[in-house]
Design brief:
Number of domains: 1
Oligomer: single chain
Structural class: alpha+beta
CATH topology: Ribosomal Protein S5, domain 2
Strand content: 15-25%
Number of helices: 3
Helix content: 25-40%
């Protein structure tokens, strides 16, 4: 389970990250990352977007659990000021957790290369 301090819950955070953040697409997910300029951040925050295009409620919930698990695995690689939104694509309903984690790591690495950020 993703700790509460690392969960993105406000729609304004989601909106800012998606609209102003750097995007990297993978076959099963699209990842957006934005560096926050707030200095009192408790750590990186991660949000999930799993739309009805992914499948029915059971499938969406399964994908959400897998993505949360993958996000937890990469949490220590993120900077405390990072805001990350993971958008699940319809193909993600058939993806296993290790594949989602690998795609998340690949997407974050591509974003790092584009922005020139050290971490």
């Amino acid at each position: 389970m993703l700790p509460a301090q690392h969960r993105m819950t406000r729609s304004t955070e989601f909106g800012a990250t998606v609209s102003k953040g750097t995007r990297a697409a993978q076959p099963d997910v699209v990842v957006y990352r934005l560096r926050s300029d707030q200095t009192a951040d408790p750590g990186p925050r991660v949000g999930l977007i799993v739309s009805k295009a992914v499948g029915n409620a059971v499938q969406r919930h399964r994908v959400s659990r897998r993505l949360r698990h993958a996000a937890l695995a990469v949490l220590e690689d993120l900077d405390p000021s990072d805001r990350v939104v993971i958008r699940a694509l319809p193909r993600s309903r058939d993806a296993v957790t290790p594949r989602l984690e690998q795609e998340l790591r690949t997407a974050l690495e591509r974003i790092r290369q584009r922005t020139g950020a050290p971490s």
